[in-house]
Amino acid sequence: MLRTAPLLFCLLGVACTGPDVRLAVTAVDSAGIQIVTNPSLDVPGWAMEPDPVLQLGTVDEEGPEQFFRVSAARRLSNGELAIHDGSREIRVFDEDGSWVRSFGREGEGPGEYRGPGRMFRLRGDTLAIWDTRLRRLTVLDYQGAVLRTISPMSIGRRPQILTVLPDGSTLFEDEIFLGYNPTEYTQQYSNFLLYGPDGQIRDSLPVQPRVEVALWGEGPLAGPRLFDEGTQLAGDWSGYWVATTKAPEIGRYSLSGVLEMLVRWPPDDRTVPDDASELSLAEQLASLGPGVDPEPLTRMHRNREVPALYPSHGPIVVDAVNHLWVQRFEPPGTLGPSEWRVFDPEGRLTATANIPRGHRIFDIGEDYVLALGRDEFDVEYIRLFRLTRS
To answer: Which superfamily is assigned to 21-272+307-388 in CATH?
Structure first.
């Protein structure tokens, strides 16, 4: 465990360089949709220290810092970290990294879990934990006492929770299964469903496209298209963002499913070079475990058509102050940190931030990024990075 002094939020008063983000061009079309066009990618960079100020994790076979398949992590208002992993237990550590308490276990009773998924922090440090197997949301106080459980009625076969609202309402994405074709790609779609605090459906929102897929398993084609990031989604307390990654554009929807804003920015060079497919295959083969036959993966990979363009971007995340973080797409062979572009709540491109490569982001606050990383032995670590918004 790496320990450090408490994380403090401070604006250092460093003068920003680059264009004023207020120069973003805003217009309203005939349907009343606000269109925000960012004319330049030249914006200030927010400083994020490459080394974590706090690291939790160990190679030991037991103890509270021994993590396995971490599914969620959140930072509480007092600096404590709540972490949920494959043990079905939520473990809480203080701001110095010392274990404080644990709650939750394997099971189907109150405060028990079968398949933990995302975790949300609500007001008063209340936690809401979605169980992917039991298909229920458990709401707890910060000490772990169960306040209520919510089981959405008539939920579909593969629901993914997007956000939990302060009143306990929930927004879900539910995949529409259209089957797979062994020789052609099929466009998949998703429903968006808003449930009330009682688990009753409140509204059905517009259907959105997802990823294009072919037959899963051994066949002429398998999985999604090469380099396809599919549709990226992120929700907050007042709406949700949808980005197809086909163009540098993201749509902002209200909780009633109305498209309110389109945010656009200048495209990167998305041309796919001739060696991109082989670089991608080499990276996938390098990630295979010992004893795994590489031939099926190699055959399926080379049967997939190489697209002319890379996706316009990668995953998206909403932070604690409603800024939208959009990861720049990383072509195969990319080295160095991952670059994220940050848009303010009005859709203006405000800053960029570099996050160490290979980390899965769980939580972004005013002055920190909380993420999951791994070492060369695949040991999991929760890392807290200091972020300075200039």
So the answer is: TolB, C-terminal domain (2.120.10.30)
